[in-house]
Amino acid sequence: MSHSILRNKGTLLLGDDKVSVIRAARIIQNGGLVAFPTETVYGLGAAATDAQAVKRIFKAKGRPSDNPLIVHIADIEQLNAVVKTISTRAFMLAEHFWPGPLSLILPRADKIPAVVSAGLPTVAVRMPDHQVALDLIRAAKVPIAAPSANRSGRPSPTSFRHVLEDLAGRIDAVIRSDTCPIGLESTVLDLTGPRPVILRPGGVSREELEAVLNCRVPILGLNKVSGIPHSPGMKYRHYSPQAPLVLIAGPAKRRLLLIESIVESYRRQGLSVGLLNSAIQEYMPLKAGPEMLAAHLYDSLRQMDHRDVDLILAEETEIQGLGLAVMNRLRKAATRILKV
Length: 340
Ligand code: TXA
Ligand code: MG
What we know:
The protein has helices at about 20-30, 50-60, 80, 90-95, 130-140, 160-165, 205-215, 250-270, 275-280, 290-305, 325-335; strands spanning about 5-10, 10-15, 35, 45, 70, 100-105, 120-125, 145, 175, 185-190, 195-200, 245-250, 275, 310-315, 335-340.
């Protein structure tokens, strides 16, 4: 890609070539905000050691200040600058899953300002599995704090176009790329308690974690059993398109009957319904497995906005592997869940 000086409402559009990434790294070093691709979703990055820069992230996203960020590193040695102590378990997980979609919650090092973690004594850290992200962190020579690069409450971005829809004019630069292959955020695993707990299902499945840890790994808040959000991000409405989203659960045949009747009644009223699972499957004519659903979920939610539908219908999927994270996002995006 050429080293263009394209801008969108003042936000610099950078290529993903070496020169552009160095330019992006300078912006980070000077306290600016750069959106960059990772293997999960786009991140909105600032120097994790710069409290002022990190505050700008919260402002640009409209993110509540009590929702902590994830710190991204490029080398295992960088972990020492981010966390106070590394347990054997943490080290083993890092060795096995990094670079990759697993964020570990560990005790926060003093060098990382409290604002990064919304005042918590802990910090989330991960090493992304994306060449551009790794190049950026290395060139900036500092760990990068980055939440997903969307406006708070919106579906996470998996393309620079999504980032611009939400944040053009509010951030300094975005690195252009269309590749966030997983399409859903990292798994957040709390390692600060007596046993590991999944705070947010994501790119690394519960089954994979259990195989490596050789024990059961509970998922917090999976069924909303307690009202207390342990991962602060859990209490806010998330991933929301503009139209109401109804999630339909139950046997496939009954789901289909209900969908047909809802679509028919909307049509009679001159209203349109967007079918989320069908929209996702348009990407692939074969039966979409959880990987396919994950990879296209957020883009499809945004497409529903562009098509200006009056209602979005989504169908429940199996909760094995990545399916658990897909269902978690659908439940949070849903305004209603109908069981048939
Ligand atoms: O894949 C990802 O995780 C992407 C890419 C950019 O790395 N990032 C991302 O960040 O999804 P964000 O900010 O959208 O989500 C971070 C989640 C939130 O649910 C937050 O509450 C939780 O991680 N979290 C961060 N630090 C935490 C901490 N110290 N304790 C508990 N939860 C924490
Ligand atoms: Mg997010």
